[in-house]
Design brief:
Layout: H1 2-23, E1 39-45, H2 48-56, E2 76-82, E3 85-95, E4 107-111, E5 126-130, H3 140-151, E6 158-165, E7 168-176, H4 181-188, E8 193-198, E9 211-215, H5 222-232, H6 239-242, H7 248-261, H8 267-270, E10 274-279, E11 284-289, H9 316-322, H10 325-342, H11 345-359, H12 367-392, E12 413-423, E13 455-462, E14 465-467, E15 472-478, E16 491-497, E17 505-511, E18 521-525, E19 530-536, E20 545-547, E21 552-559, E22 567-577
Parallel strand pairs: 1-6
Antiparallel strand pairs: 1-2, 2-3, 3-4, 4-5, 5-7, 6-7, 8-9, 8-10, 10-11, 12-13, 12-22, 13-14, 15-16, 16-17, 17-19, 18-21, 19-20, 21-22
Helix pairs in contact: 3-7, 3-11, 7-10, 11-12
Length: 579
């Protein structure tokens, strides 16, 4: 009997030890490569023609931004040098969904074994470099992932890289752990399972097709469909049934971490930038964060001010969970743990200082932009605890379910046509009348004083019915807004006003500089070659509406040159949802 008890105790001990080991990420040969004080040097050499094709590649999103092509980017052969070590015949491609999918400094993925079997570096066969397009400090991705790992979330690792391609210095990138089987093995000790990626996707009828299966045996997403079906029921969400599908504790940790750190472009706040991994042994789903290069911001550019600071629930799963009192209690307890045990202002400010010092020799941004960005991060870190704790000290409130301010529709179909003639100008600064608490004013940075500059005409129909409300126009071409996420992209800026009281329109046509050429160009309005942003009403007003996504069409340029005073003329056609 005694021997039996000893044997049983040994078995239980080994099971507990296995569980403890399973919960903790395992050591990996790449650990030193992701050291916080390490910046890796990467030089790439490839044919100039391939580099041009790589940088202008982009996804296909469809007319209403609802379509996602799973593998839109082609690999190209290249040779690289990493920290002085030459590696021949690798594959390199562009990466990114929207915010980082630029041609000027494209995010990059390097597949070391694309052409040479088993070729690797520090135990990795894939290297991922994100361009931090929305972060002048280049520090946010590192800081967010560091915080999430400290919090216990299933998260990638990150540090820094300096990238040079064909002699072109692209500056500082985030070196981010690739979300692949090697990462799953590190986090879960096994890599078997299925992986999905969410591109502005959610568990709703309209957005579910943008949760795309990446790899694994569940090609038809039958297992994920079970979770989707459960979330569609109008009945209260059964927690026990949900926990047979989802590691709810792990999800709550990630949810609270995203909110606290201000990752406004993640799942909880914007239904974007996330992976879902089904771990085969437990058969449970785990969410993994992605794309935090614009964090430390609450509520971000697409949600209205005045929302709760301690939680966000734009994601449908978050909304359904927040309806359950038990989950609210568990979430708030986890948020309190993060504030008490993980959120350390002195430590985080030190990490920011360390990152800025490490990357200083390789900066490609202005001192003004860097100082503005770092000051914003510092202010967020220093004030975040107080505003979140204040809400945790009182009863929880319901989520108000606000609509995004950047997307109009679905609704009546609006078709717009216009023509314009003006010159290329370099504005001295953003006009004071555009200074606004509404970050979407950046999407409509066309001053009213532009009226009378150049010539233009705009006509449109709503469900086929002609509308001609505008009588006054202003138009010009500019180098673009330095604070905009399409830095270095020239714009056509147009304003149209009415003598009859119709709200003014502002149109930005934001052009890929590597696809627009001097002289005549025919360009697709597809969010990438040309991104059209249309606003109605005065920026920052309660009546203002902006369609930043979901506009398709064409732009024909008869004349264009990015030189001050050069003539610019052409015409455009747009299709979108009506305001």
């Amino acid at each position: 009997m005694k021997r039996t008890l000893i044997t049983l105790a040994a078995v239980l001990f080994s099971l507990n030890l296995f569980a403890a080991e399973s919960d903790a990420p395992r050591a990996h040969a790449s650990d030193a490569l992701f050291a916080a004080d390490h910046l890796i040097q990467v030089e790439v050499k490839m044919s100039p023609e391939d580099w041009q094709a790589l940088r202008i590649g982009h996804r296909i999103t469809g007319e209403d931004f609802s379509q996602v092509v799973e593998r839109p980017y082609d690999y190209y052969p290249a040779n690289i040098v990493i920290n002085g070590l030459a590696i021949q015949s690798v594959g390199i491609r562009k990466k990114g969904f929207f915010g980082s999918a630029i041609s000027t400094r494209p995010s990059l993925k390097i597949k070391l074994d694309r052409y040479v079997d088993d070729q690797a570096y520090s135990g990795l066969d894939t290297l991922t470099f994100n361009n931090n397009n929305q972060d002048a400090t280049r520090a946010q991705t590192f800081m967010v992932y560091k915080f999430m790992n400290d919090a216990g979330a299933k998260s990638p690792r990150s540090n820094f890289a300096h990238i040079i391609v064909n002699g072109e210095d692209l500056g500082v990138y985030s070196h981010v752990e690739s979300v692949d089987k090697a990462m799953m093995k590190r986090l879960f000790r096994k890599s078997k399972g299925d992986l999905w990626e969410g591109y502005a996707g959610d568990f709703t009828e309209h957005d579910y097709n943008r949760i795309v299966h990446k790899w694994g045996k569940d090609d038809d997403s039958e297992k994920l469909q079970v979770l989707y079906d459960l979330l569609q029921s109008p009945d209260p969400l059964p927690v026990k049934a949900l926990e047979q599908l989802l590691d709810l504790d792990a999800f709550i940790t990630l949810w609270a971490s995203e909110v606290l750190i201000g990752h406004w472009d993640g799942y909880a706040s914007n239904r974007n930038n996330f992976y879902i991994f089904r771990e085969s042994r437990s058969d449970l789903f785990y969410f993994i964060p992605w794309g935090p290069d614009s964090a430390f911001w609450d509520p971000g550019p697409f949600l209205p001010a005045g929302l709760p600071k301690s939680f966000k629930a734009q994601g449908h799963l978050c909304q359904r969970l927040w309806e359950i009192p038990e989950v609210r209690t568990r979430y708030r307890a986890e948020m309190q743990r993060l504030l008490d045990k993980v959120w350390n202002e002195k430590k985080m400010l030190g990490e920011l200082d360390q990152a800025l010092a490490l990357t200083q020799p390789y900066r490609t941004v202005s001192n003004e932009a860097l100082e503005k960005g770092s000051a914003s991060i510092r202010a967020y870190i220093e004030t975040r605890r107080q505003e979140v704790q204040a809400e945790l000290d009182v009863p929880a409130v319901d989520w108000p379910k606000p609509e995004s301010k950047a997307v109009v529709g679905p609704g009546a179909v609006m078709e717009v046509s216009g023509e314009f003639s003006s010159v290329f100008q370099v504005p001295e600064s953003i006009p004071q009348n555009q200074a606004s608490a509404d970050p979407l004013s950046l999407f409509a940075n066309v001053p009213a004083s532009l009226i009378g500059t150049g010539t233009a005409n705009v006509e449109f129909t709503v469900d086929g019915v002609p509308q001609q409300p505008f009588s006054n126009y202003g138009v010009r071409a500019t180098p673009g807004d330095p604070d905009f996420i399409r830095k270095g992209y020239p714009m056509i800026e147009l304003i149209a006003t009415s003598d009859s009281g119709h709200p003014p329109w502002r149109l930005n046509l934001i052009m890929d500089p590597y696809q627009v050429v001097e002289g005549k160009s025919e360009l697709s309005i597809d969010h990438f070659t040309v991104w059209a942003v249309l606003s109605q009403g005065e920026p920052g007003s309660e009546e203002a509406k902006t369609t930043a996504f979901g506009i398709s069409g064409s732009l024909e340029l008869d004349q264009f040159s990015p030189k001050p005073g050069a003539p610019v003329s052409g015409r455009f056609r747009l299709k979108t949802a009506a305001f």
